[in-house]
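In the lab's daily routine, each protein ends up as an entry in a very long ledger. A line of letters takes care of the sequence, but it says nothing directly about the fold. The fold becomes a row of whole numbers, each drawn from a learned catalogue of backbone shapes. The protein below has been through that process, and both of its lines are reproduced in full:
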Amino acid sequence: QHYDMDPIQASVQSVRSANQAILDRGKIDPKLEGMGTTVVTLYFKGQNLYCTNVGDSRTYLVNKKRLFQLSRDHSLVQEKLNMGIYDREQAAKDPQKNVLVRTVGFDDEVDVDVWTYKVSKNDIFLGCSDGLHGKVSDEDIVYIINKFLPNPATATKKDVEQCAQFLVDQANRNGGNDNISVILVLAQ
């Protein structure tokens, strides 16, 4: 329903629609009132990626050596990082690292962050929940993706599916006790 809209508008509207659907569901079933979630969207149009997020689900650009986080977490710990109160090591150890300051399904209005990124051929994008990035190190994520997708230009759908499944399995092997969502996109 949003295809004729500007990509940024469409991305934001899709998150706002999800927010309203969650709120409406909570009104129908009182046991579900107050539920919420995080979200990341990837909208490709032409040579551009329009990325949105709310919460601590993330979008990364993956290269041979490292992950580049394109989204920004909406958590208490991230706010401390932004203010210079914490460094990355302190943030990783904070017991409140999963306390979110922004979610989908909590308030009538949801503030959605949007980024635009110029896509290059063979770019690899990873969208994931904290069930992955909270249990598998950046280095291990890069290693796994490079193992399964050494040459994005020749990767098959099966290669991508196996890589995504291995990432989920690795999070579970590392003690995953949360929902684990993984989206891998290869720019061709």
